[in-house]
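ARCHIVE CARD
Drawer: 12
Card no.: 0347
Subject: one protein chain, sequence and derived structure
Cross-reference: see card 0346
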Amino acid sequence: MQNLKIFTNPTKPNDNRDKRNKAILGLLVYQGVTTEELHQLEPEHLKLKQGKIQISENRRRNSRTLDLQPCQILEIHEYIGKIRPKINK
């Protein structure tokens, strides 16, 4: 799949919200995660070393494990490790 411009654009996100949105947008576009599935996601569902994400089953879909694109792994890692704790304060 061709990279989206948001991931290859040389301009950096301006704030924590932009970085969060970039990570979420990648999951919506590359993995086809629904908003319902996004609400159910927890940090332990991410297996960044393996480049995978576990999506829990819901009323419409079975659980599944999806591959992350290389351009997503660093974005999600930064979000989980640095941005999310700041937003949750």
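Annotation on reverse: The chain has a mean pLDDT of 87. Residues 15-88 form a domain with the hpI Integrase; Chain A fold (CATH 1.10.443.10).
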